[in-house]
Amino acid sequence: MKEVINLPAADLGTDTADGAFAAGTAAMHISGPWNVSNFKEAGLNYGITTLPSLSGESTPAASFSGTRGMFVSAYTLHPEEANMFAEFLISEEMQLLRNGITGALPAIDVQVESEYAKGFIDQLNYAFPMPSVPQMSAFWDAAGSASSNIWDGANVETELKALDNAIVSFVAE
Q: What is the total count of domains within the chain?
């Protein structure tokens, strides 16, 4: 792949990948519902499907699943209004509006008119909830380091062993 995209890993962040896909210069991109509206606005003709299977496997590769939260403060001077706002956030009207604007999957059981939702929902069958623990930042740092080092020519086995060791040490904490 580096022969095709001759850039150092430091120049290949999420923005670079998003931009390449939106420009039509990348054939595929692993992303999430947060990018649906961006790619629609770019005029792309694209679809969503599950991740490919890993070598020797017959099911899609696993991924993390995550959520975005909206909150109201328990310390508000306007508890009735805060409660009304919270109820609105989980209403069918708001969930449909949010899906239409951002592509986010609804947080309640409501049908959306989206050609993209099914692909994301299908991947959820192979997804694990992303842990909400401080160690996740250390995981992402270690995974990012391994990916960057591999892209820049480091030994794949060595880097994956270092990542595995880092993950085991996070779990042990």
A: 1
